[in-house]
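[job 4471] stage=fold_predict status=RUNNING
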Amino acid sequence: MNYTFLSRYLKSIAILIAIMVIIFYFGMIPDMIKDMAINFPVFSYLVKPGIILIQISVIPIIIALLSTWKICTNVHKHQFFCVSNSKYLSIIGNSAMFDTIYCFGFSLFLYKVRAYNAGIFILSSIVILMGLTVSFISFLLAKLTNEANADLLNRKAI
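[job 4471] inference complete, writing structure tokens
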């Protein structure tokens, strides 16, 4: 397989995800929160804090996308099992774990102020499950990348 093509393809996916994140976090979510305040005026005091708190959760996603971009750059250079890729995978795992914990805390906050319903529960459960999965897979790949790098170095030394 042509690694330049693979790198460009993965970078294209990262750009597409970044565009979707921007639309979702800065377009759709604020509109949905404002609509919720119109439909349920009792929760109108949560509009601005809700928008701010949800937009804070985009920071780990940006960090993960930047780490993905750096991994793609290393793939383009034919550096698959290097220490830096392992570091970037760990950063992706930490970002996913932070976002998962943040989502769980935000869900607890919504439950505490009695703004929690079945839809929010299902959505936050899916986000938490996906975040745990991404975090687990990233940490596992980081470990495997480290071991592969060590194995490659041992073979070169022999």
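[job 4471] summary: The chain is about 85% helix and 0% strand.
[job 4471] exit 0
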